[in-house]
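GNAT family N-acetyltransferase structure dump, as promised
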Amino acid sequence: MQIRAANRSDYPELRQIYLESRRKSFVWEDENEMTLADFDKHTSEEYIILAEEDHRILGFTSLYLSDNFIHNLFVHPEFSGKGVGSKLLDVATLKMKKPLTLKCVSANHKAMKFYEKNGWKKVVEEGVPGEKYWVMVYE
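structure tokens r here:
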């Protein structure tokens, strides 16, 4: 598995991964409102790192480098649970200064377990009912 910075030619595949992953795992949202264009809106001005193998993108993470903040981390559903997310997290932690932060939707129990398994700690739960998330830190 190779980890590298994304470039614009990767965006069509990244858009598809973002859409498919969200539709599969974000059961609390209406999948009919999710579009390919969401990727561009939700990663604007961010540094994107991707994982690939045999010229196929397995997943990505997008970072706000100046804030040491991980905004998105998505793995293609076919490669979930195979170490892709952990590898992306490892590289992200090397790219930024500690402490790093991220927000994880409270309803996303699978992601919460993943982050905790990788050394992240819950700090505070914020948001309004139906839109709650945990602020998490990695030191």
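Residues 2-138 form a domain with the Aminopeptidase fold (CATH 3.40.630.30).
lmk if u need the other ones
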